[in-house]
Amino acid sequence: MGTNHNIKRYGEQWPSYRINQGLDILKQLKAWIIVSGGWAWHFMSPEDHTEYKHAHDHKDIDIFVHPKNVSKVMVILEKEEFKKVWTKYDHLPSNENFRRYEKIDWLETGKQIRVTIDFFESKTVDTITVNNWTLVEPKTLLSYYSNIHSSDKCWAVKAALLLIEKGESPIGSLLLSKNPLEKT
Q1: pTM for the structure as a whole
Q2: Which alpha helices (DSSP H) does the chain contain, by range?
Q3: DSSP labels, 63-102
Q4: Are 14 and 53 in contact (CB under 8 A)?
Q5: Of 47, 62, 115, 139, which sits with the fewest C-beta atoms within 10 Å of its C-beta?
Q6: What is the pLDDT of residues 130-152, one digit of tens each?
Q7: How confident is the model at residue 1 (pLDDT cuts 50, 70, 90)?
Q8: Are 136 and 125 in contact, with CB atoms under 8 Å apart?
């Protein structure tokens, strides 16, 4: 579980290069993956939303891949120079066959950026389609914050919990990317 947020930092935004790097690889993998975690909330949010750091976690990219599509995804990751990275979770029993891939890119400014993909293999994930992206269904996604994902304090997770509790869909809701301290 994530630690409580420092509300003094609520206005901080993800740098555009972080979003662009994530979108670049996700677009290449789009046909064969199910997007999870912060990127799923990103795609459920209204288009052109502000990329607040506390709204969606973009530190890594969480994806589910059906076993029949693993080889297609692996070919793309290899072509894009992603490498397997060993983690403390690799030897734990898991239904999702977890693995992590990373690559280091260099920006034009000379700044180094690490792109991390947390890859879960699964035959059965409840999904929805939003703007041609296959995403983990919101209630299912929320259930992952007890074991797979850790940023349960992000605004999107908190907003989705409240909306679903009220019987409303979080998809397209402004609340998924809205600073909870802002007055409406």
Answers
A1: 0.90
A2: 16-29, 37-44, 70-79, 138-143, 155-165
A3: EEE-GGGHHHHHHHHHHTT-EEE--TTTTS--SS--EEEE
A4: yes
A5: 47
A6: 999 999 999 999 998 865 555 66
A7: very low
A8: yes
